[in-house]
Amino acid sequence: MxxxxxxxxxxxxxxxFQKTFGAEFHVVTAGSAEAGLREAEEVVPDFILADxxxxxxxxxxxxxxxxxxxxxxxxxxxxxxxxxxxxxxxxGITNFFTKPYDAAEMRKFLSSASExxxxxxxxxxxxxxxxxxxxxxxxxIDLLKKINSPDPR
Length: 153
Known about the structure:
Elements: E1 3-7, H1 11-21, E2 26-30, H2 33-43, E3 47-51, H3 59-69, E4 74-79, H4 85-90, E5 96-98, H5 103-111, E6 121-122, E7 129-130, H6 133-148
Parallel strand pairs: 1-2, 1-3, 3-4, 4-5
Antiparallel strand pairs: 6-7
Helix pairs in contact: 2-3
């Protein structure tokens, strides 16, 4: 069962997430970025989702910090502000849900970890390398930054 950490300062949003997905996933919730960092160390989640607008530390800053503690977790921003998409992408966060999110779309996203290898896999017969989505995404983002840089060395 995939472990999911959902961080949001709105208690109603946390209850709804737990109610909607708790039967299918191991859902852990936190009401602040600080509590989310503590939970991430204890749970070691497969997925970490965070609201963008929270008092104190915002969602993007939280996800950047938690990525160091849980490098294999798949991360996403959940926000009522669709204008945050470019800021999330600039921070390397490519999974984005606008509140109110579609439960079926979220369920599909949370189920996707079963399709990913637990570790990097290298098939020596074909030469194919499968990496965790976060590593692949970071590689693509690094490549895009090099391509868009004035000095792409």
